[in-house]
Amino acid sequence: MVTIPDPHLAMVRPVRPRTPNGCEECLKLGSPWVHLRLCLTCGHVGCCDSSPLKHARQHAGGDGHPVVRSFQPGEQWRWCYVHEAMV
């Protein structure tokens, strides 16, 4: 079986976290989050799907930046929201 790479990986860029201290929107709203995700296209830091407001998923859909990586210490995995799969 041949595995085809996710085409959205072409959108991955070297990024710096825009808000390294937490979810960009939650920090503005004073809302809690569970875990953080870093957009690998623009550096947006958003909260995960286990968080009340799911800002990482909203950013991926609204801005068209589907690939994130975990922004949790010691985690390096990446996720594509379009394909709902690790990449």
Secondary structure: elements and pairs:
Layout: H1 24-29, E1 36-39, E2 45-47, H2 55-63, E3 67-70, E4 78-80, E5 85-86
Antiparallel strand pairs: 1-2, 1-3, 3-4, 4-5
Question: Can you describe this structure?
Answer:
The structure is a single chain. With 87 residues, the protein is of the alpha+beta class. The chain has a single domain, classed as Herpes Virus-1 (2-Layer Sandwich), CATH 3.30.40. It has helices at residues 24-29, 55-63, and strands spanning 36-39, 45-47, 67-70, 78-80, 85-86. The chain is elongated and about 45 Å long. The protein starts with 23 loop residues before the first helix and ends with a strand. The mean pLDDT is 96.
Question: In a nutshell, what does this entry contain?
Answer:
With 87 residues, the protein is α+β, with helices and mostly antiparallel strands.
